[in-house]
Design goal:
Oligomer: single chain
Order of helices and strands: HHHHHHHHHHHHHH
CATH superfamily of the largest domain: MetI-like
Helix content: over 70%
CATH class of the largest domain: Mainly Alpha
Radius of gyration: 29 Å
């Protein structure tokens, strides 16, 4: 005759509770560390693909690239498991683990499709180690091009932003100035700055000054329009309160209109930055004998596609860095509007 005791039920319940706890712990581990472990495996696969298979071409940086990928895999795995002890840096890296995973998979496929099996035709699609060779072997020429582009871009952008800001404030504040300037903006503004290339290179004494003018023109129009819109949209209640306290017109412009319009101004600066980069490349390809645009044209002429891709990566990093710097300045100046500005 079988017997049944409460201890049997208690043992079964405890076993189920332990299994549920282990399953919950496993799910928590996969949720927190799964992406990091997968990212480490992706970079491990990239490193092994560089070291275990022979290249179909002659690229001297393949072993260094493979070792570097293995280092990234080890650091990613170490960071994943020690994120709780690294503070904010560890948690930031853990949050970016999906991106690290995507990059590892992309580089692995890129390596296999180019250097190992030539699924993509060479030299139009160079492998990653060819890009690394450009950064190591042709670094002086590339740095000279970067410095030339930065000087040209910075000069034109600052001039265009300053003139656009002053013009936008003037139009938004004064109806008389707006009466004369607004039609000019409607006539000149919609035209792309590159359409002025023949006139600019004929009018200005040097290709450098002509390129600076074109960059300033591409920057100035969006800054002018957005600044004008920001000043014109300031509530009249702000002006009424300031006048009640005895504010003069200069105070209304400098302390009321401009601060209230700054979110619009930064939108214009952001749009002008993208336009100025596009004009910069075109101007350097056509008239200027230095810079990243010139470097791109030189690389295309010699069918040096690795150099061309390397220059494109540098241009992307420069533009991204400039946008990050602009957003940092915006956050500092508009700290009083924290939570209001959403872009």
């Amino acid at each position: 005759m079988s017997t049944f005791s409460l201890s049997d039920t208690t043992g079964v319940g405890a076993g189920r509770t332990a299994s549920a706890s282990r399953a919950a712990a496993l799910r928590a581990f996969l949720r927190e560390c799964g992406a990091g472990v997968a990212a480490s495996l992706a970079w491990l696969a990239f490193g092994l693909s560089c070291l275990l298979w022979s290249d179909i071409g002659d690229w001297s940086r393949t072993p260094s690239l493979g070792i570097g990928a293995l280092v990234v895999a080890a650091v990613t795995l170490l960071t994943t498991f020690s994120a709780d002890y690294l503070g904010g840096i560890g948690h930031a890296l853990r949050n970016r683990a999906p991106w690290i995973l995507a990059l590892g998979m992309f580089f692995t496929l890129w390596e296999l499709a180019t250097a190992k099996f030539a699924w993509l035709p060479l030299p139009f699609f160079p492998p990653p180690q060819a890009i690394i060779e450009v950064y190591t072997d042709d670094l002086p020429k590339l740095l000279d091009s970067v410095l030339a582009s930065v000087k040209l871009q910075l000069g034109g952008y600052v001039i265009g932003a300053a003139l656009g800001f002053v013009t936008g404030v003037s139009i938004g504040w004064s109806r008389g100035i707006g009466y004369w300037v607004h039609p000019v903006l409607r006539f000149i503004g919609p035209l792309p700055a590159t359409a002025w290339l023949p006139i600019a290179f004929f009018t200005f004494p040097s290709s450098w000054s002509a390129s600076t003018f074109l960059i300033a023109l591409a920057t100035g129009f969006p800054v002018t329009v957005l600044t004008w819109s920001g000043v014109a949209s300031v509530s009249n209640a702000y002006y009424d309160v300031a006048r009640t306290l005895g504010a003069k017109p200069s105070f209304l412009v400098l302390k009321v209109a401009i601060p209230a319009a700054l979110p619009h101004v930064f939108v214009g600066l952001f749009m002008g930055l993208g336009s100025s980069f596009a004009v910069l490349v075109v101007a350097e390809m056509i008239g200027v004998k230095a810079g990243l645009g010139w470097y791109l044209q030189w690389a295309q002429g010699w069918a040096a596609y690795a150099n061309m891709y390397a220059a494109l990566i540098v241009m992307s990093l420069l533009c991204s860095g400039a946008i990050t710097l602009l957003f940092t300045i915006r956050d500092r100046l508009l700290v009083w509007q924290k939570g209001v500005v959403k872009w």
